[in-house]
């Protein structure tokens, strides 16, 4: 269970008016912890945020005491419930190495699944009968082989994928777009309870958050970020599934698609992905071949403190480690010796300052003049 004082600081920071994910990362890069950020004097905060936001950080946001109490009570009410924050040692490495790792996650179930070999399966909320069957069959076979199936608990393909994994006695993770104590759609309540018992429910949204349309596209980055690859079963040309596929591709992960009838609108998105380079698969065995061995990749997390900047103040230590060629986060961790979450936050600050560019495949490059 997360320490109540630390959890309170995280909730204070993330629910303060004017503080979104990007601003929170900027504050963490500057002050290294939420406790230090919310305790900082207004003058110091002005380096990162505007004056109104700096003033609001000085006091807890509306409802803070109730939100903290509800979260602590939720954690204590049943085993398998916890809040995971970006600085935790067991934060999943694949998600940490994605473009926009969530700063805080609510978990219910088997948290060890976050480090297992994961495959995202996404698709239409209104699939054809064949698409629904494909989702269930592919998930059942691949979960039976040891893959953890990650999806979004939505109607259609998502629900069929979760159900297929459970039918095989396998593992599945549902990343939801509501508070973890809500189920959407309501028809998936029994499915959600089964996943909580044998798999894992994940949300970045506060307890009680209803199903708001704006919250579902951002959760797709978590589905893609946790997974070695993303399989699109059926998707229209304009769909959240294609957003997930794009995010997976930008993170250097595999994108796979099942083809369908040229007359079916639910297959048009899959055909577009295949034309753009996604792997065409028509059997679970082909998915396994494309993704490679099941063993998860071990990514080191260093605990050393960040080194000081150049005494003359002329060289940022991360820019010095970066050089002028594209480098991965792993390489920079080795060169700097910084903890991964601290390095990620500092890279974001450099990116926002226009000194570093983020490239496809999870690479970073120093910009000209930096």
Which blocks of ≥5 consecutive residues have pLDDT under 50? Answer: 296-314
The overall pLDDT average reads 86
First-to-last CA distance: 42 Å
DSSP E strands, number: 12
Order of helices and strands: HHHHHHEHEEHEHEHEHEHEHEHHEHHEE
How would the global form be characterised? globular
CATH architecture verdict of the largest domain? 3-Layer(aba) Sandwich
Instruction: Provide the structure class.
Output: alpha/beta
Domain unit count = 3
In the sheet with the most strands, the strands line up as 1-2-6-5-4-3-7-8-9
The major sheet is characterized as:
9 strands, mixed
- Figure out the total of helices: 17
The CATH class of the largest domain is Alpha Beta
CATH topology of the largest domain: Rossmann fold
Proportion of beta-strand residues: 5-15%
Q: Helix coverage percent of residues?
A: 40-55%
Overall radius of gyration:
21 Å
